[in-house]
Design goal:
The chain is α/β, with parallel strands linked by helices and 396 residues long. The chain has 2 domains: 142 residues, 2-Layer Sandwich (Nucleotidyltransferase, domain 5); 181 residues, Nucleotidyltransferase, domain 5, CATH 3.30.420. The strands form 2 sheets. An 8-stranded mixed β-sheet has the order 5-4-3-2-1-6-8-7, sandwiched between helices. Strands 11-10-9-12-13 form a 5-stranded mixed β-sheet, with helices on both faces. Strand 9 and strand 10 form a beta hairpin. Helix 10 crosses helix 11. The radius of gyration is 21 Å and the shape is globular. The relative contact order is 0.11.
């Protein structure tokens, strides 16, 4: 039986994966399914779909040597399924550059501008553009909307955005942009739902810990600073990204190891972070399982927690105090030991965790006497994308 209700498809494309969701495009968005194509360009790619009906959910291996083939597999499935009546597609676009501060209906001009911005984010934008253009070929009359991960931070104070390099580069768009904005927007929506006006008045640190990791300092509902910078490679160390580094390292490694710019970029984005330090895994779960017998795993975890703790202290200072701390992302939501180690030693800020609630990944993991409320919120970038698509196409 066909579903004739309009549907919004959300696309969250990564370097080796495509996450997607389908929403009924009513005033109250209702998720129909979640899915993921992972392992793109690898020997073992897989296609997963999860719905409320277990009989319609599946996981199977596919041949996806590149994003073009992966999106073809997804579109062929959509066309053959009862979910074929798409009305719109929304995309997470990692980098919006200096121009885009709100979602945009995609047209030829925006596609041209995103191609121009590709050097800003060579890790994500080319793959995202391929998805957009492939979908436009397959569904030429279907509107697509770009939702920018940088938009949440667009109006940060100038002192947080400027970089300490020659001023002439600022006119070329080089500044701190910040990322994970769709996640942070969801977290602030949830806090507003829970706390109403209080969320718009509090001093809040949002912490998104997944394969990518960042923090954002929020005052009166607005981002005032964030750890990622011109690219998502900056800030705290991540699964395979280095985070902040001494810029002199590039010259040193170029002179002593013969690394060129491409090799250095590959190193800091795909060979560093937890993987680089541990030499074994980029997965926090694996590292936690082996930290007792492997000093490399233990040191990777220790540095990860130490760096995040330092950023919390820095942002508490930038905010002039702290009212609320929020953990999100795959690690932030599901690793109580990591949350505990990050918060240990921050009692001077008024942070006290309730051990049992932390172990249970409860929505509130701070004690009743803690001056700072510490929350765990399951983030949902896809629903924010669907919300923006609905607003751009059907409200505005």
């Amino acid at each position: 039986m066909k579903i004739d209700q309009p549907l919004i498809l959300t696309i969250n494309g990564g370097s080796s994966s495509i996450k997607f969701s389908l929403y009924k495009s009513d005033q109250l968005l209702v998720k129909v399914l979640d899915g993921k194509i992972e392992g793109i360009g690898q020997d073992k790619a897989a296609f997963h779909v999860k719905t409320s009906n277990p009989s319609e959910s599946f996981s199977h291996s596919i041949n996806a040597p590149d994003h073009k083939q992966a999106i073809k597999i997804l579109l062929d499935w959509v066309k053959a399924s009862k979910y074929q009546s798409l009305t719109a597609i929304g995309h997470r676009i990692v980098h919006g550059g200096p121009k885009y501060y709100k979602p945009q209906k995609i047209n030829a001009e925006i596609i041209e501008e995103l191609h121009r911005l590709s050097p800003f984010d060579p890790e994500h934008l080319p793959a995202e553009l391929l998805l957009i253009e492939t979908l436009a070929q397959q569904f030429p009359t279907l509107p697509q909307v770009a939702c920018f991960d940088t938009a949440f931070h667009f109006n940060m104070p100038r002192v947080a955005k400027i970089l300490p390099i020659p001023r002439c580069y600022e006119s070329k768009g080089i500044c701190r942009y910040g990322f994970h904005g769709l996640s942070y927007e969801f977290l602030m929506d949830e806090l507003t739902r829970i706390e109403a006006l209080k969320a718009k008045q509090d001093r809040i640190i949002l912490i998104h810990l997944g394969n990518g990791a960042s923090l954002a300092a929020v005052r009166e509902g607005k981002s005032i600073d964030t750890s990622m910078s011109f690219t998502p490679s900056a800030g705290v160390l991540m699964s395979t990204r280095s985070g902040d580094l001494d810029p002199g390292l590039f010259l040193y490694l170029a002179q002593t190891e013969g690394l060129d710019a491409k090799q250095f970029n590959e190193m800091v984005n795909k060979q560093s972070g937890l993987l680089g330090i541990s030499e074994t895994s980029s997965d926090m779960r694996n590292l936690l399982n082996h930290e007792k017998e492997d000093i490399r795993a233990a040191e990777a975890i220790q540095l990860f927690c130490y760096q995040i703790k330092k950023w919390i202290g820095a942002y508490a200072a930038a905010l002039g105090g702290l009212d609320s701390l929020v953990f999100a992302g795959g690690i932030g939501e599901n690793a109580p030991l990591i949350r505990s180690r990050i918060c240990s030693g921050l009692e001077f800020l008024g942070i006290e965790l309730q051990n049992e609630q932390n172990i249970l990944n409860s929505p509130v993991i701070s004690t009743d006497s803690s001056r700072i409320i510490v929350r765990v919120i399951h983030t949902d970038e896809e629903v924010i994308i669907a919300k923006h698509v609905y607003e751009v196409l059907y409200v505005n």
